Amino acid sequence: MPTIKTVVVFVHGWSVTSTDTYGGLPARLLAVAETLGLNVWIQEIFLGRYISFHDEVRVSDISRAFRTALSDQLSDILKEGTRFVCITHSTGGPVVRDWWRRYYETDPDAGICPMSHLVMLAPANYGSALAQLGKGRLSRLKSWFGGVEPGQGVLDWLELGSKEAWDLNSGWIASDGSQIGPNGIFPFVLTGQSIDRAFYDNLNTYTGETGSDGVVRVAAANLCGTYIKLMQEAPKPIPGKKGGFSAKTLNTLDIKQAPKTALRVISGKSHSGVRMGIMRSVKESQNDLNSLETINAILACMRVRTDVQYRALCDQFQQETEIVQKNELLEVEQKLFRSDVNFFHDKYSMLIFRVRDDEGHPVSDMDLLLTAGPDADPNHLPQGFFVDRQRNSINPETITYFFNRDVMKGSKAVIGKNGEVVREAMAGAGMLGFKIVARPDSGFVHYLPCEIKASAEMLEKALHANSTTLVDIVLRRIVRKNVFRVEKMTSGTKPQNFDKTKPGDEIVE
């Protein structure tokens, strides 16, 4: 029986200038494929040829260059109708997703995509917390950039809450899942959650952030996200208060879950590096047992040919991820002449809030409060639930929160190797809600405070393990009638000065 030729295209992450970044992965795949009777042909696409590391280069520019690279280097194979498996690392994942969406998903006349499988290793699908640090500080972080100064255009995409990442991911979440399959693509995410302490930067705690691989959070890698849209109720007059209006309630308009996609957390792997990096640490020798889990997971992805096989692998990966995260929950770092240090690798959730008004204007001057308990009180949130908060520097109406989901949902006690209780059981929040106080809160055009009361349902819908939720909040833009008035003019009317006009008591409907 003739074997089917499998073409594998590698796309490395941003700032890479050497094929050393692949480690022994391409050669290892070839060797294993031969032993399994698979006909695998490796083809590398060197994005570095198209990138000058200049600030003007954006992810969309790279995806356009990727299209040209495929046409130049794989034209003969693509003309035969042969499809390829794409293996990416880091920023390579968003690059290829942008290419696929730009030229195939949104183009009904494009035909079947030449890429059949997209296997993303540690992809920054929702960005990275590191990106906001800026080029100067990132250029010295070996764990991501290897001493190469990145371009600002790509960092803008990678910054948490960027418009480009929001558009790409909200589009994926809104899809019906029909793009996943033999006539579409089979997407996979393989990522680690271990920290290579050799790369830890004392001035930048993100490199040691639990719930991440030192660069990309598991929640930011996972494609299976959620979209929630909240809309402020229409303003109503306050009885007995002249000119007073209220719109206290945020109503849920839409909750959408992304199509089921494959996520596998690989044990003992970090983002980069020859010792623990999910890609670079792979050795060519089949005696390299430390990377066997990675190799087996990639081969499992490549073997998928049907919808049934894909769903089965999604379930298998979920079960294996549960085992990995259970085994890696407690990390004990032994210190010479000092007490051991315990690290808890809980499951985390990321929430990205975008606040705009009903006219589409961004609302950046606001307080966003998280609440819990029957009284919707911020003080009822459990201790240790909050990990990080970032406001996007280009789109300040977008704020990203990183939560310890196990603390929020509650978890069992953590037991040490000697049977001792290392961490007590936690009850969790039980409920979650949001309050918004936006400014200006008075004047000719302003906003009114509002909230969605804390509830168990919101906690369940918004916080998913290893996942990101996009929370789209729409506020009512309150416009007072005196913004524009028409005065009747007669022959005796004198000119009037209206620079001291007050907003008035009525509003525009």
Q: Can you characterise this structure?
A:
The protein is an alpha/beta fold and 509 residues long. It folds into two domains: 5-224 and 259-328, 3-Layer(aba) Sandwich (Rossmann fold); 231-237 and 242-254 and 346-479, no CATH class. 23% of the residues lie in helices and 25% in strands. It contains twelve helices and 23 strands. Strand 1 (5-11), helix 1 and strand 2 (39-45) form a beta-alpha-beta unit.
What's the SSE blueprint?
Elements: E1 5-11, H1 25-35, E2 39-45, H2 59-73, H3 75-79, E3 84-89, H4 92-105, E4 115-121, H5 135-138, H6 152-158, H7 163-174, E5 186-192, H8 218-221, E6 226-232, E7 236-237, E8 245-246, E9 250-257, E10 262-266, H9 292-303, H10 307-327, E11 330-333, E12 341-344, E13 348-357, E14 366-371, E15 386-391, E16 398-404, H11 405-409, E17 414-415, E18 421-423, E19 432-438, E20 445-446, E21 450-455, H12 456-462, E22 467-475, E23 478-479
Parallel strand pairs: 1-2, 1-3, 3-4, 4-5, 5-10, 6-22, 13-22
Antiparallel strand pairs: 6-9, 7-8, 11-12, 13-16, 14-19, 15-16, 17-18, 19-21, 20-23
Helix pairs in contact: 2-4
